[in-house]
Structures are given as C-alpha cells and as structure tokens.
Amino acid sequence: ELGETSDAAAQALGQFDPAQVMPLVRIAANDNDTGVRCGAIRALAEVKSPEVVDVLIDVLAKIPLLGTRNPNRPFVRTPRPGTQQPAVFFGDNASDAIALNLPALEAQLLLELLQRASAHSEWHVRAALMKVLAKTLFDGATNDQGEVSPGAAGLLNRPEVVQAQDAALLDPQKDVRAWAAVGLGLAYVKITD
Questions:
Q1: Is this model's pTM higher than 0.85 or not?
Q2: Cα dihedral 137/9/50/29 (nearest 10)
Q3: Per-block average pLDDT, block size 10, for the chain (193 residues)?
C-alpha cells in the first residue's frame, strides 16, 4: 500500500510544471526521513527537468560508499518498480532508491548524469555513481523470479553506461575504480593504489 501510494505520488508530480515541483523535490531529496528521501528520488524519474541531474548529483555526494547496516535502524519496504515484491532498503537508502529508479530516468537526463557525475571534481560523487550502477546490476535489477528486469537490462547494456564504468577503471581514486569493477562484474580483479 505504501509503495502504491508513493508511486502514484511520484507519477502525479511528473504531471506538474517542473519549475513548481523541483524546489519541493530538492528539499525532499535532502530530508532526514528515509521514506521522504526515497520518495523524492522516485519522483525524479517522473519529472522532466534538467534540474533532476543537479539533485541526483547532490544525493550522490552524500551516499556512504561502504555498508552502513545498522541493526537498530528500521527497514523501509517499498515494491520494486513493475513488481509487487518489496525491496528492502537499509543503511544506504539513497543509492538503493537511485538504483531502483535509474532505469526509468529519461534518456537525455541519464546521459547528462553519467557525463557530469563521471567528470565531477569530487571523487566521492564519481565513486557513488559507480556504486549506484553496480547496485542497479546486483540489487535493483532483478524481478520476482531473480531475472534481470528489462528496464535494468536496457540501462546496463547502454554503451554510455558501460563506457562510463570502463573509463572509471582508470580513475586516479581507488574507490571509484573498485565500484566500477564491481559494476562490470570484475569483482575479483585486484584494485591497486
């Protein structure tokens, strides 16, 4: 029920003028409440505005790169897009939410996100983008039967995505290279300093 409500709310936001919606979504994407943050990220896939990329980069800058699985932190359940199966978000809710909704992002906005985040001056943003792409493959891509969803497959097979991950393997920062390797399925390759 919660997932259906948030999906409907996110879709409704996409029907409004982006100039009116984006200030609210930007505030919600930075809210302390996990559910509000995840709902805002879901809404970004529906809103057709160049500002979407700015908000996503702001969110990427705050994503923890290592697991933050706190047993005292409550779980938030929301259905995966296109299924009734709940996905469990814990610890790093923002990257989970982006991973689940990245396949729904408009193609031009996705391309801009890849270009700007991959070239960002802060290595943490570059690493977080690679983490989200890896999570899209491993966490957000499967349906009820454990198969890669068509949306995630379409995203992960896009040349721009693979090129961004491939280029990140040469990044001077080790965390960026490591997350790119995971996303490309090269998890057992030794990542050197």
A1: no
A2: -70
A3: 57 78 88 81 87 93 69 40 44 72 86 96 94 74 62 79 94 94 69 54
